[in-house]
Amino acid sequence: MADKPLAKHLISKMEDNPAPIYKRVKDAIVHHIANGKWKCNQKIPSESDFVSELGVSRMTINRALRELTAEGYLFRMQGVGTFVAEMKGYTAMLEVHNIAEEITQRGHTHTSKLLSLTEIRADPEQAAVLGLSTGDKIFYSHIIHYENQVPVQLEERLVNPQMAPDYLHQDYQNQTPYTYLMKIAPLTAGEHIVEAVMPTNRQRAYLNIDEFEPCLLIRRQTWSENKIVTYSKLLYPGSRYKLLGHFKGHHR
Predict the structure, then answer these.
(1) Among 144, 145, 123, residue whose Cα is nearest residue 135
(2) What is the pLDDT at residue 40?
(3) What CATH class is the domain 89-244?
(4) Pairing of strands 74-77, 81-84
Protein backbone atom coordinates (compact mmCIF):
# COMPACT_ATOMS: atom_id res chain seq x y z
CA MET A 1 0.00 0.00 0.00
CA ALA A 2 1.19 3.57 -0.65
CA ASP A 3 3.11 4.89 2.30
CA LYS A 4 1.80 7.52 4.70
CA PRO A 5 4.46 10.14 3.86
CA LEU A 6 3.20 10.19 0.27
CA ALA A 7 -0.37 10.77 1.43
CA LYS A 8 0.73 13.52 3.82
CA HIS A 9 2.75 15.21 1.11
CA LEU A 10 -0.18 15.07 -1.29
CA ILE A 11 -2.65 16.41 1.29
CA SER A 12 -0.34 19.34 2.09
CA LYS A 13 -0.20 20.17 -1.62
CA MET A 14 -3.99 19.96 -1.89
CA GLU A 15 -4.37 22.55 0.85
CA ASP A 16 -2.38 25.28 -0.90
CA ASN A 17 -2.22 24.21 -4.53
CA PRO A 18 -5.06 24.92 -6.99
CA ALA A 19 -3.78 22.36 -9.50
CA PRO A 20 -6.02 19.45 -10.55
CA ILE A 21 -5.85 16.36 -8.34
CA TYR A 22 -3.99 14.25 -10.93
CA LYS A 23 -1.30 16.98 -11.07
CA ARG A 24 -0.97 16.95 -7.27
CA VAL A 25 -0.52 13.18 -7.38
CA LYS A 26 2.19 13.62 -10.02
CA ASP A 27 3.93 16.27 -7.89
CA ALA A 28 3.92 13.95 -4.87
CA ILE A 29 5.44 11.08 -6.86
CA VAL A 30 8.08 13.32 -8.43
CA HIS A 31 8.89 14.64 -4.95
CA HIS A 32 9.48 11.10 -3.69
CA ILE A 33 11.76 10.37 -6.63
CA ALA A 34 13.64 13.67 -6.43
CA ASN A 35 14.41 13.38 -2.71
CA GLY A 36 15.64 9.80 -3.11
CA LYS A 37 12.84 8.12 -1.17
CA TRP A 38 12.05 6.04 -4.25
CA LYS A 39 15.20 4.83 -6.00
CA CYS A 40 15.90 4.06 -9.64
CA ASN A 41 14.24 0.73 -10.69
CA GLN A 42 12.26 0.55 -7.43
CA LYS A 43 8.68 -0.68 -7.76
CA ILE A 44 6.11 1.88 -6.62
CA PRO A 45 2.63 1.22 -5.19
CA SER A 46 -0.02 -0.14 -7.52
CA GLU A 47 -2.96 1.88 -8.82
CA SER A 48 -5.20 0.12 -6.30
CA ASP A 49 -2.86 1.04 -3.45
CA PHE A 50 -2.86 4.70 -4.50
CA VAL A 51 -6.65 4.73 -4.79
CA SER A 52 -7.08 3.16 -1.34
CA GLU A 53 -4.49 5.33 0.41
CA LEU A 54 -5.26 8.67 -1.19
CA GLY A 55 -9.00 8.33 -1.63
CA VAL A 56 -9.05 9.47 -5.25
CA SER A 57 -10.44 7.80 -8.36
CA ARG A 58 -8.62 5.13 -10.34
CA MET A 59 -8.97 7.34 -13.44
CA THR A 60 -7.04 10.11 -11.65
CA ILE A 61 -4.24 7.75 -10.60
CA ASN A 62 -4.10 6.14 -14.03
CA ARG A 63 -3.70 9.53 -15.72
CA ALA A 64 -0.95 10.60 -13.32
CA LEU A 65 1.01 7.38 -13.84
CA ARG A 66 0.54 7.43 -17.62
CA GLU A 67 1.81 11.01 -17.87
CA LEU A 68 4.78 10.36 -15.58
CA THR A 69 5.64 7.35 -17.73
CA ALA A 70 5.47 9.46 -20.90
CA GLU A 71 7.64 12.12 -19.24
CA GLY A 72 10.29 9.54 -18.35
CA TYR A 73 9.88 9.42 -14.57
CA LEU A 74 8.41 5.90 -14.53
CA PHE A 75 8.33 2.77 -16.64
CA ARG A 76 5.65 0.09 -16.57
CA MET A 77 6.00 -3.66 -17.09
CA GLN A 78 2.84 -5.47 -18.13
CA GLY A 79 1.68 -7.79 -15.38
CA VAL A 80 4.54 -6.80 -13.08
CA GLY A 81 4.03 -3.20 -12.01
CA THR A 82 5.32 0.35 -12.28
CA PHE A 83 8.93 1.27 -11.51
CA VAL A 84 11.08 4.39 -11.10
CA ALA A 85 12.96 5.11 -14.34
CA GLU A 86 16.58 6.13 -14.58
CA MET A 87 16.17 9.85 -15.18
CA LYS A 88 18.12 12.09 -17.50
CA GLY A 89 19.23 15.32 -15.99
CA TYR A 90 17.35 18.39 -17.11
CA THR A 91 17.89 22.09 -17.43
CA ALA A 92 15.33 24.86 -17.57
CA MET A 93 14.67 25.94 -21.14
CA LEU A 94 12.60 29.05 -20.47
CA GLU A 95 14.47 30.19 -17.37
CA VAL A 96 18.06 30.95 -16.39
CA HIS A 97 19.24 28.71 -13.57
CA ASN A 98 22.52 27.79 -11.90
CA ILE A 99 23.58 24.36 -13.16
CA ALA A 100 25.28 23.61 -9.83
CA GLU A 101 21.96 24.12 -8.01
CA GLU A 102 20.05 22.01 -10.56
CA ILE A 103 22.46 19.12 -10.00
CA THR A 104 22.46 19.50 -6.21
CA GLN A 105 18.66 19.53 -6.13
CA ARG A 106 18.70 16.11 -7.78
CA GLY A 107 20.82 14.84 -4.89
CA HIS A 108 23.93 14.64 -7.06
CA THR A 109 27.38 16.22 -6.86
CA HIS A 110 28.44 19.11 -9.10
CA THR A 111 32.07 19.70 -9.98
CA SER A 112 33.68 21.67 -12.79
CA LYS A 113 36.91 22.02 -14.73
CA LEU A 114 38.10 25.42 -15.93
CA LEU A 115 39.51 25.14 -19.45
CA SER A 116 40.10 28.83 -20.13
CA LEU A 117 39.66 32.20 -18.40
CA THR A 118 41.13 35.10 -20.31
CA GLU A 119 40.80 38.53 -21.88
CA ILE A 120 40.40 38.73 -25.66
CA ARG A 121 39.63 41.35 -28.29
CA ALA A 122 36.16 41.10 -29.75
CA ASP A 123 35.74 40.08 -33.36
CA PRO A 124 32.72 41.54 -35.21
CA GLU A 125 30.38 38.70 -34.20
CA GLN A 126 31.44 38.76 -30.55
CA ALA A 127 31.15 42.53 -30.41
CA ALA A 128 27.63 42.38 -31.86
CA VAL A 129 26.26 39.93 -29.30
CA LEU A 130 27.65 42.03 -26.41
CA GLY A 131 26.66 45.40 -27.87
CA LEU A 132 30.27 46.54 -28.12
CA SER A 133 32.66 47.54 -30.91
CA THR A 134 35.05 45.31 -32.83
CA GLY A 135 38.41 45.23 -31.06
CA ASP A 136 36.96 46.08 -27.64
CA LYS A 137 38.25 44.13 -24.66
CA ILE A 138 35.95 41.29 -23.54
CA PHE A 139 36.30 38.38 -21.12
CA TYR A 140 36.06 34.72 -22.12
CA SER A 141 35.57 31.58 -20.02
CA HIS A 142 35.31 27.92 -21.00
CA ILE A 143 34.17 25.38 -18.38
CA ILE A 144 33.12 21.72 -18.24
CA HIS A 145 30.41 20.96 -15.69
CA TYR A 146 30.12 17.46 -14.22
CA GLU A 147 27.29 15.60 -12.50
CA ASN A 148 28.64 12.79 -10.33
CA GLN A 149 31.90 13.02 -12.31
CA VAL A 150 30.12 12.67 -15.67
CA PRO A 151 30.41 15.68 -18.03
CA VAL A 152 26.96 17.14 -18.70
CA GLN A 153 27.57 20.68 -19.94
CA LEU A 154 30.26 22.54 -21.86
CA GLU A 155 29.95 26.27 -21.14
CA GLU A 156 31.53 28.96 -23.30
CA ARG A 157 30.84 32.48 -22.07
CA LEU A 158 31.61 35.97 -23.37
CA VAL A 159 31.33 38.69 -20.71
CA ASN A 160 31.00 42.45 -21.03
CA PRO A 161 33.84 43.90 -18.85
CA GLN A 162 31.82 47.05 -18.24
CA MET A 163 29.27 44.97 -16.34
CA ALA A 164 31.67 42.56 -14.59
CA PRO A 165 35.12 44.17 -14.34
CA ASP A 166 36.46 41.57 -11.89
CA TYR A 167 35.20 38.52 -13.80
CA LEU A 168 38.70 37.17 -14.47
CA HIS A 169 39.66 37.25 -10.80
CA GLN A 170 37.02 34.85 -9.46
CA ASP A 171 37.45 31.23 -8.35
CA TYR A 172 35.20 29.23 -10.67
CA GLN A 173 36.13 25.94 -9.04
CA ASN A 174 34.09 26.96 -5.99
CA GLN A 175 31.36 29.01 -7.64
CA THR A 176 29.84 29.12 -11.09
CA PRO A 177 30.00 32.21 -13.30
CA TYR A 178 26.21 32.38 -12.89
CA THR A 179 26.55 32.79 -9.12
CA TYR A 180 29.10 35.59 -9.40
CA LEU A 181 27.29 37.45 -12.18
CA MET A 182 23.95 37.35 -10.38
CA LYS A 183 25.59 39.09 -7.42
CA ILE A 184 27.11 41.98 -9.33
CA ALA A 185 24.76 42.33 -12.32
CA PRO A 186 21.40 40.74 -11.47
CA LEU A 187 19.55 39.33 -14.45
CA THR A 188 16.63 41.42 -15.69
CA ALA A 189 16.11 39.84 -19.14
CA GLY A 190 17.35 36.95 -21.23
CA GLU A 191 16.98 35.38 -24.66
CA HIS A 192 17.46 31.72 -25.64
CA ILE A 193 18.00 30.01 -28.95
CA VAL A 194 17.86 26.21 -28.72
CA GLU A 195 18.99 23.81 -31.43
CA ALA A 196 20.24 20.28 -31.98
CA VAL A 197 23.84 20.13 -33.25
CA MET A 198 26.61 17.68 -33.94
CA PRO A 199 29.61 18.53 -31.72
CA THR A 200 33.15 19.05 -32.95
CA ASN A 201 35.82 16.45 -32.24
CA ARG A 202 37.19 18.59 -29.41
CA GLN A 203 33.72 19.06 -27.87
CA ARG A 204 33.11 15.30 -28.04
CA ALA A 205 36.37 14.72 -26.21
CA TYR A 206 35.48 17.21 -23.49
CA LEU A 207 32.03 15.63 -23.02
CA ASN A 208 33.26 12.05 -23.46
CA ILE A 209 30.66 11.10 -26.07
CA ASP A 210 30.92 9.09 -29.28
CA GLU A 211 31.07 10.57 -32.76
CA PHE A 212 27.44 9.89 -33.61
CA GLU A 213 25.82 11.48 -30.54
CA PRO A 214 24.03 14.79 -31.11
CA CYS A 215 23.98 17.57 -28.54
CA LEU A 216 21.56 20.23 -27.37
CA LEU A 217 22.91 23.76 -27.74
CA ILE A 218 21.49 26.77 -25.92
CA ARG A 219 22.70 30.17 -27.10
CA ARG A 220 21.88 32.56 -24.27
CA GLN A 221 22.12 36.33 -24.11
CA THR A 222 21.42 38.10 -20.80
CA TRP A 223 20.79 41.68 -19.77
CA SER A 224 20.94 43.66 -16.52
CA GLU A 225 19.24 47.06 -16.47
CA ASN A 226 19.06 47.21 -20.28
CA LYS A 227 22.76 46.44 -20.73
CA ILE A 228 24.06 43.17 -22.15
CA VAL A 229 26.07 41.22 -19.56
CA THR A 230 26.89 37.90 -21.22
CA TYR A 231 26.53 35.73 -24.29
CA SER A 232 26.88 32.01 -23.63
CA LYS A 233 26.91 28.77 -25.56
CA LEU A 234 25.80 25.84 -23.39
CA LEU A 235 26.33 22.42 -24.96
CA TYR A 236 24.64 19.31 -23.48
CA PRO A 237 25.08 15.65 -24.52
CA GLY A 238 21.74 14.56 -25.95
CA SER A 239 21.78 11.23 -24.11
CA ARG A 240 22.33 12.81 -20.68
CA TYR A 241 20.15 15.89 -20.66
CA LYS A 242 16.73 17.15 -21.60
CA LEU A 243 15.23 20.62 -21.58
CA LEU A 244 12.27 21.42 -19.35
CA GLY A 245 10.06 24.46 -19.77
CA HIS A 246 7.04 25.79 -17.89
CA PHE A 247 4.61 28.35 -19.20
CA LYS A 248 1.15 29.67 -18.49
CA GLY A 249 -1.48 30.57 -21.04
CA HIS A 250 -5.11 31.53 -21.38
CA HIS A 251 -7.90 29.25 -22.51
CA ARG A 252 -9.72 30.32 -25.62
Answers:
(1) 123
(2) 80
(3) alpha beta
(4) antiparallel
